[in-house]
Write a structure and sequence with these properties.
Layout (H helix, E strand, L loop, with lengths): L6 H13 L6 H8 L3 H13 L5 E4 L4 E4 L13 H12 L8 H15 L10 H6 L12 H13 L1 E7 L8 E13 L2 E8 L4 E6 L3 E10 L8 H5 L12 E7 L4 H5 L8 E4 L5 E7 L2 H10 L4 E5 L1 H16 L3
Antiparallel strand pairs: 1-2, 3-4, 3-7, 4-5, 5-6, 8-10, 8-11, 9-10
Helix pairs in contact: 1-3, 2-3, 10-11
């Protein structure tokens, strides 16, 4: 029954009928929408006095019409807080700005803004100047390659790609099963099963020089889901082995570690000197290594041995560059 639908739907119904220029009245509108004439009368008064719709009653034709022929009611009902959220979300779109999705999303936001009434309770200009979203640097992505990858993921089709690793003189050909498309620190990655290596491999989309969707289908292995591959939120370079990580942070760095949740199942042990030990399990050791190094002398890996050696190797290499 129409009468159980929100008021805004009735308003759009009334607006549509008035714009047909048939001069509908309260009785005809109420009968068609299955509500009382008093309800329609209140709606028309609301449109006229609150929404400032140019509605008038034609005494000769016994119905309502718009004095401004081009007027139409905005297609959405949006509050100040909703509008604020829309503008903030638009600023966050930059993470998609190197993909075909960006233009489409911008178009959607433009349509939302165009459908708003001329008088709104929030001025978006201050958002542009006072709320800033600094984005990670991005790489260029070929639109055709992106679309091919997206279709292959959607339809579970294998891909044949040509890939160029940084510093390599030539490309390599790979047949892959595209599992997940992931945005990580401004870069888009394709997490796959690589048939050449017969293992999970991650490819930067910007380094894919060509992509062809094959007719062969694939299925995700049992248990190979997004939570298993990316659930710890620390990285995207997936390895089969799971490591128990312990990192000691000194008293200077510890306050910054306490104020964030770095891992969904992390444990923190506070130390008497003001420092702490952060514990979690992960298979993304390379990303953890880079994260540890970003804290300088404030972070020391206690385990596992594999992570300790990775950090040592990086520090030796960095030090060697200054000799």
């Amino acid at each position: 029954m129409h009468k159980y639908k929100p008021q805004h739907r009735r308003l759009l119904f009334i607006d549509k009928k008035i714009r047909t220029k048939t001069c509908p009245n309260c009785s005809s509108l109420a009968a068609e929408y299955e509500v009382s004439t008093k309800t329609i009368q209140r709606d028309i008064e609301y449109m006229k006095y609150d929404l400032e719709a140019p509605i008038e009653y034609d005494q000769v034709r016994h119905g309502y019409y718009y004095t401004e022929p081009r007027f139409s009611l905005p297609a959405i009902d949006i509050s100040e807080s909703d509008l604020f959220a829309v503008f903030i979300a638009e600023r966050a779109l930059n993470q998609f700005r190197n993909t075909p999705v960006y233009a489409k999303l911008k178009s959607v936001f433009a349509k939302i803004q165009d459908s708003l009434p001329d008088k709104t309770t929030i001025n978006p200009a201050w958002i542009q100047e006072r709320i800033l979203c600094f984005q990670e640097p991005i790489t260029d992505i070929d639109v055709k390659i992106w679309d091919t990858i997206a279709k292959a993921i959607r339809d579970s089709n294998r891909l044949s790609i040509r890939y160029k690793t940084p510093g390599a003189r030539s490309t390599t050909e790979r047949k892959i099963d595209p599992y997940y498309l992931v945005n990580h620190k401004g870069e888009w990655y394709l997490s796959t099963h690589c048939h050449a290596r017969n293992s999970i491999r991650t490819f930067a989309v910007s380094r894919i020089r060509s992509a062809e969707m094959l007719s062969e289908k694939f299925t995700l292995p049992a248990g190979m889901n997004k939570d298993r591959m990316f659930g710890d939120q620390l990285g995207i370079i997936w390895k089969k082995d799971l490591y128990d990580v312990k990192i000691r942070f000194n008293a200077e760095v510890a306050p910054f570690i306490r104020e964030r949740k770095w891992h969904p199942r992390q444990k923190i042990k506070n130390l008497k000197d003001g420092g702490l030990v952060l514990e979690f399990s992960t298979n993304h050791l390379n990303e953890v290594k880079d994260w540890v190094l970003s804290w300088g002398p404030g972070a020391t890996v206690q385990s596992p041995r594999e992570l300790i050696e990775k950090v040592k190797t990086s520090l030796r290499s960095a030090l060697g560059a200054y000799r």
